[in-house]
Amino acid sequence: MINLASRDILHGWGKFLFTGIGLGLLVGLTLSMAGIYRGLVEDGRMLIDNSGADLWVVQQGTLGPYAEPSNLRDDVYRSIVGLPGVAETGNVAYLSMQVSHGAKDVRVMLVGFESGRPGQPGYLIAGRPVTRSHYEAIADEKTGFHVGDHVRIRRHEYEVVGLTRRMVSASGDPMIFVPLKDAQEVQFLKDNDALINERARTAANPAFNRPNVPGLLEAVQSSQAQSHQVNAVLVRIEPDADADVVAENIRRWKRLQAYTKAQMDDILVVKLIATSAKQIALFLVILSAVSAAIVAFIIYSLTMNKVREIAVLKLIGARNSTIAGMILQQALGLGMIGFIVGRIVAGMWAPVFPKYVLLLPGDALRGFVVVMIICALASVVAIRAALRIDPAEAIGG
Amino acid sequence: MAKMNAPAIRLQGLKKRYGTGEAAVDALKGVDMTVAPGEVIGLIGPSGSGKSTLLKCLGAVIEPSAGRMEISGQAIYDDRWKIADLRALRRDQIGFVFQAPYLIPFLDVTDNVALLPMLAGMSNGQARLRARELLEALDVGHRANAQISQLSGGEQQRVAIARALANHPPVILADEPTAPLDSERALTVVRILNEMAVQFRTAIIVVTHDEKIIPTFRRIYRIRDGKTVEEAGEGRQV
Q1: Which residue of A has its CA nearest to B52?
Q2: CA spacing 20 to 30 A to A224: which of A58, A294, A350, B54?
Q3: B contact test, residue of A316, A322, A323 with most B CBs within 10 A
Q4: Alpha-carbon distance B196 to B38, whole Å?
Q5: CA distance linking residue B235 with residue B51, whole number of Å
Q6: For residue range A202-250, what is the model confidence (pLDDT) as tens digits?
Q7: DSSP characters for B144-159?
Q8: Given an 8 Å threshold on Cβ–Cβ distance, is A313 in contact with B55?
Q9: Are A60 and A374 in contact (CB under 8 A)?
Q10: ipTM here
C-alpha cells in the first residue's frame, strides 16, 4: 500500500518544511528553557564541587553563605580544625557586586580565599595562581577579563593574573577570586567618610570616652576600623571521617551551623532556585500548549485543504484508518522536522545566552517524546474532522 | 452472490425521502431502471429532478427510503441495506467518474489508478501493472509517471476513467464527465466509455446535461420530479 502521508509531504515539501522550521524554532525555545533550568542546577552543583569543601560552617540559624548572609569571626576556624575528623579549613568571603572594567560593568561574585586552602579556584585555564598577599585576582573567563587586565574593585586596582572556567555563583555570575584580606576589606571595611563619622559618634558616647580610662576611646575606634569577619569556613574532612558526624559535632559543640554536601545541594538546587524552576516550568507548560495549538492548527488547515481528496478517498473505499493514519503520520512528520530543527537551533544559540544553558541528551529524548505526543494529540482534531467528511461531497449536486 | 447473465443494475421502485413530516421532500418517487453489462446509458433531466440523489443512492453513499436495488443480481438494498460493508461495495463493485477528475494531486498518474486495487488488497507491483495496462488502453500510458498537475484536462479525465475501471467493477457512475471539455474531447471521452464498457463488460450510467453527447446513447433514462421514463436514444456512432 502506498504511504499517502509521505507522498503528500513530498508533494508539498516546501510548505511542510517551512512549517516544520517554524515549529522547530518554538521547540528550540522550549528545549532552551529546559537547558536554562539544567544550567541553574549545574551552576549550583559546580559551586559546591569547585569549592573543594566537604562541610560549610556558617552563622547559626542561617542558610549561608550562598542563600543567606552569614557572618563569622575569622578565628573560628581554629576551634574547628581541632575537632576529630577535620583535615583542613579555609575562611571564605563572598560578595556579589559590580566591577568596572574599562567602559563596561560586569556583575560578579567576589570570592576571598586563603591560598592553598578550601575555597580557592580548582584549576586555571590561563595565567598563574595568586602569589602576592594583595591586589591580585583570578577571574572566571565569563567575566571577559584577560590575564594582565587591571580591574577596579572599590578603592583598589587588581591585576588579573589567572583565568578559570565554570566558576560561577548560584545565580550564574562569574567569580573573581582575590586574597581573603582584600575581600574582607571590600566587604566589611567602611569608607573614609563613614570612619570619620563613626569615630565622632563613638567619641560622643560617654560609655567609650571616659575621662578616667585613658586609651579606651582609641581602642574602640581602632576595633571599628578593622575587619575580622568571614562568611563561612569551608571544611575538608579526613578520608575516613563521616561528614554527618563531623557536622553534628560542629553544630553541637561550636554553636555554629554546619552543612554537608547533600544539605548544601538541597539548599542550592531545591531552595535557592525553587522560584526560578517554577517560573521555567510554567514557561515550558505554556510553550508546550502553544506548540500543541500551532501543530493542531497547521494539521487541521492541511487536512481541510484536502476535503475533496479525502471525500474521494472515502468514496473509492479507503478505510477510516487509512485516512487517520495519513493525518497522524503527517503530524508526526511535522513533529520530527520540528524537533530536529529545534535541537539544532537550541544548540546553536545556547552559547549566546548570558547564563549557562545545559542541553542534556536525556532532556532531548524526553523533548522528542513530548513533541511526538503533542503532535499525535494535536492531530486528533484534524482526524475527527476528516472522518466527518461525507464521501457524498465527492459527488456534486 | 453475483449472478451470471443478470443485469448489472436493476432498480425497482427506488424511493428517497429527505426530512420528515410536513418538511419531507420526496426526491425519488419510485425509480425503475435496468442496465445490462457492457451497456452505456444516459441519465438526463433538469436541475433538481433527482439525478444527483439517484447517483448517490446508486453509489451507496446515501440510503434510499424504500425499493430494491441490485448489482449483478445481488440485492444491495431491499427496504434496508443488504450489505454490511458499503465501503467495500463502493471499492469493488462501483467505479466513479466525476465532473472534474478529482484525482489525488500528491500521487502520480500510475498510483492514482493503482490506489484502488491496493486498497482492495492487491500487491503494489500487481496494482501498478494493472494501472499501466489500463492507462495504455486509454492512450495515456506515456504519461504514467507524470504528476497530475502536468496533465491536460482530457488526459486527467482519461486517468479518472482508468481509476474507475481499476477494480473491474460491474458498474461505473459517471457524473457529467464531459462538462468541462470541448466537443471534440467530450466525444472522445464518450467513445472511450463505450469501448471500456464493451471491453470490461461494465455498465456505465452517464449523468449529463451535455447536448453534444446525448445523441450517442442507445438508451436514455429521463428523470423528472423523482421518476424516470425510459426512452430510446439515437445511438449515434462517435
Answers
A1: A397
A2: A58
A3: A316
A4: 8
A5: 21
A6: 888 888 888 888 888 888 888 777 778 899 999 999 999 999 999 999 9
A7: TTSBGGGS-HHHHHHH
A8: no
A9: no
A10: 0.86
